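Re: weekly structure request thread

Next one in the queue (203 aa):
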Amino acid sequence: MTVVRLSLFVFIFIAISAQLTSAQQPEQVTITEPAVIDVASLFKQADTVALVKIVSGDAENYSQAIYKGEVIKSFKGAATGEAIYFGPYVGEKLGWEYILFLRNADKPIAPKTTSSASYGTIHYANVFNEGYSSMESSYECVFGGKTPAEDCDYAVRVCTDYITLPASMPKFPPMTKDTPFGCRLVRKEAFISLLDTFNDSKK
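Done, posted below.
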């Protein structure tokens, strides 16, 4: 065997060995999917839980979308009538009501431009669990009644693939039907009553 052939053989052997060693190394994968969590645990993990009307928003002056909301009803961590600021997800509808489960941010957020731009430097809270802790409220006619009064009501949109609810709470459409992102509607009054029980259990 010539020196050239021997050198080539050694090179190929080293290359194949390196590939085999690399293939055996464990790979770390970061999972960004939201957790599947029941609504009672979501309540415990949140610093603030409230029914909020969004009065304004700013996706220009801050490093993330920031909304200003008025607390209509508080279940935890806020006062009725208080103004709260939250983010970071775009797409929340101005003037609409949401039930929000929020975690306080570690630091205040300042505008990118001048200190007085928009809301100024503010303490804010984050919607968490990849956005599924923000639940839109709207008037819907999906509840299966025989008359408009039975079929239509104010509802809360809960993505039950990620936020699980008590089995006893009716969901529309039912759990046997597939829906986009697993999101379903529950009657707003029933959902608020459920949150009130979590609030009462803390007393």
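The domain at 40-135 is CATH 2.40.50 (OB fold (Dihydrolipoamide Acetyltransferase, E2P)). The CA atoms of residues 47 and 103 lie 5 Å apart.
Next request, please.
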